[in-house]
Amino acid sequence: MASQEPHNLNCLTISELEQHAAVRMDKQTRDYYNEGADSGSTLLENSQAYTKYRIRPRVLRDISSIDTSVPLFGARNSIPLGVAPTAMQCLAHPDGEMATARACRKAGIVMGLSSFATTTLEDVAEASGDNPRILQLYLFEEREHSRKLIQRAKEAGYKAVFLTVDTPVLGRRNMEIRNEFKLPKPYKIANFTEDSDSAAAKTVMEGTPSTTDDQKEKKSSSSSNNNNSRTHTPPKGPISFHTHAPNPTLNWSTDIAWLKEQCHPEMQVWIKGIATAEDALLAIHHGLDGLVVSNHGGRQLNGAIATLDALPEIVAVAKGKLPVHVDGGIRHGTDIFKALALGADFVWVGRPVLWGLAYRGQEGVELCLRLLGEEFLRCMGLAGTIKVEDISKDYLVKVDKGGFVSRL
To answer: Which pTM value belongs to this model?
Structure first.
């Protein structure tokens, strides 16, 4: 994946891309994209986990022909990296998900689309052409909404559904609360406009509770004062992230079978949000097509294990039985290499793509993907590997707190 394009001398790293994006986004958007839950310790540890490992490079190997590509969803992905689904990309740039889709198509990299995108899944499919794309899904309690979305994704040629399973309730994001986050005009949650075009929808979509919602909240609170608990009431009315994305009723025994029935055979069914070997074994037991080791970018349970730290135990039980992908904290091509060496088949990146989008729209996303791709290519060569499948734990050592290294 050697690039012939000249360097952008103003932006040579993902860290510099983050700095450029920070001055181009308004405070609400910057805080929404970059914040983790509570103190943000899990968000930070997702990145820090990669510093626990060092690469053991091999030498005197012919690396004149390196292949960074991998098979995925019936195509060749140019590097073992995909663009993770992130919501409301028009906040970063007016072209939003369309710019990201075009950049992914140009780079030959799979794109994940959030259910809560500001562009319809059909428009993203058109912009993607033959490039594979997947739909991230929140399975709503009122399944008809989800069924309609799945059917549209089938018709638009999406290859898989990634069910987010780590949002039974929403994590606490303090800056989002303090900023009273609103989706500004004229943007909408595009995939649910048919369910969200009323006056009530407008206030809920923009983050201001409706009078009805206030009344429900008060009623729920007053009824639970005596036992310090809440009786769950399924969400009703217009679809919004805060009302419909969290689903405390989601469970292995009923929902996975229903979802497979809705998606197969046209689309694969993956789960995103696995962090333990026990749940990986359940994913195998329930016949899922793949899993993504994820903690929602550190935005849900603060204090949860970093995704790279969770990866080895999951690989130990799932490798060879279903594909294992990982996201969270990837900021350099060497991070991709380390994740693969620990057993991941593929990685996904979210925030760096949003930073590229905020920086220069499609061109910025292309820059982000090019930086990561070139770094990964160079890392493979300097480590002495020419094929992705050759990357293994033999290329890593782990550094303990005292600075001593040990083989894996």
So the answer is: 0.91
